Each structure stands twice: as structure tokens, then as C-alpha cells.
Amino acid sequence: MKFWTYQRAFRIDDISGEVRTAVTSSDMASTLFIDGVAVASDTFTWRGARLLRNNHLRHRLADGRELSVEAGYVGWWKTQIAVRVNEVLRYESQPGAKIEWPPSLGKSVGKDASLPPEELAKIEAEEARLSEQFRRNKPSLLFDIGIALLFFVVAKYSNLTTAALVSAGAGILGAVVQRITKIDLLGGLAVFGIVMSLVTAAFALAFQDDNMVKMRSTILGLLTAGLFLADGVFGGRFLGKRLVRYMPHPDTSAQRLSIGLGLMGVFMAVMNYAVAKLFSTDTWLFYTTFLDTALAMGIVFAVIKFAQPKQSEHASTAP
Fold first, then answer.
1. Can you list the domains of the chain with their CATH numbers?
2. What pTM was estimated for this model as a whole?
């Protein structure tokens, strides 16, 4: 799947060039164009080894000089280029910036670096393991999505209380089906979805009020946020410390992680409250079914980045 194509044009003397870097789910491919004609290309393929490299493009000009271009990421969101003629730097799309992958993604290596056969074998084994893991988790993922869609549809044609009870009943039915068929319907996020359905049903039965059903995410969000913020005050010794082991960077700060997740909980709780109070039930229903999770995932990435050590901290602790 293609994510984006970055275009970086440059002009040196009478040379008019452009580098187009296409980033997909499987690779990063850069192509060098001179006067609109493709003259060189290089592709880096993701292999999951946490060893990353930039793309390097070379072209012999008509006058015999060698044009070389380095293309790669500067930060998380953009690729940049550095252009050299006979190894002399002549152009940078972001002057002074070092073209290097974010340290949290892995180690940047030179253009000629390669992996030993045993390392490649480990990578292939890991890819096979992840593929098998996804295959096993697929039923539970689909079941979790089904529960959310069921809540949405029933609420659209009846009310939130009925939708909460029907969703909870579907979750319980899923547990029964799993025991009979041995199909894993309750793994991964499905358990969380069912628990939330049961909590929503409890709110519906206790208060018999659609507004209280809407407030479920706000109330639980504030409770969860309070736990994480309290943990952050104590240095992340409890919740943060346990979550660090799942982070991509081993030096992730447990305290920052707890504080970040706590602030995220407060923000999501306030967002739910605002949508519930300021907009119609249909709008809230669309938000809580489709937008809430996407927004939370985006914030989680920001929290992970916030909790990671800065590049200067890496340099100061390096031997």
C-alpha cells in the first residue's frame, strides 16, 4: 500500500533535477530525474531488522562529473535530499539537517551494509510468526469490530440503552460460541470490547438514561487517567514500568509514558463529554464508533514519542 510520494526538485549550475521518493508499506523507493528523464533509482525494503538505510542515487553527467544524491527521512514525517557533484556537497533540501531515520525506529547503517544469513533467517522466522499471529487473531478482531457496528446500528434504530444491552448480549453469546467451536473470538481487543459493552450495559440498567450511556467513556476515561497520572507522580513505578516492555525503544521513560497516557485519558474524556453535550445523539454515535479509536491511536503515537529519550540524551549517554 502506497502512503506518500515526496518530490524534491533541485538546480545546480545548468542541471535541473528532481528526486521522487515513494514510501509504501513494504519499501522506500527513490528515483532521480534529470531534465524529466529517470536516470537512477534505489530501493530500501523493510525487513523488520531495525537496521535502516537511506537511498543512494548516482548518475554520470554529460561532462563527465558524477552526480550523487542521498535521500531519506529527517524526522518522522518528511524525506529530504542532499546532492553532491564529484563528492562536493552542492545542495540540501533542508540545509544543515542530517538525513537519518529516527533512532526509535532502529539503527541507521551505511549504503553498503548487509545482513548476515543467520540474521536474515531470524527476520524471515519473525515475519512468519507475525503472519501466523495475525491469522489467529483475525476472528477476534472481526468479532470486536462486529460488536462496535452492532451497537451503532441498534442505536440508530432504537436507543442507546437497547444498543448497550444488545451489544453486551452479543459479547456473552460470543463467549458461548467460543466454548462450543473452539474458535478464538475473545482474544486481543475483543475482550476489551466486550468488557466495555458490559460496562455500558451496566450504566444503561442502573440509570435508564441515554445521557449516562454517553458519559461512560468520560467517567471511565477520567478514572483511568487518574491512575496513570498518579503513577506518573511516583515515577511510573507501577503501570508505566510494565508498559515500557512493549515499547519500540528500550530507553522509554516509564514516568513520561504514564503522564502522557494520563493526559491522553483526560483529553479523550473531555472530547467525549463535549461531543455528547454539544451535538446530537447521531453525531455522538458516529464519533464514538468511528472517530474515537482513530483519534486515540494517533495520540498514542504522540505519547510514545514524548516518552522516548531525545537524540541529545542518546549522545550524552553514549560511551
1. 2-111 (2.40.128), 115-211 (no CATH), 215-308 (no CATH)
2. 0.55
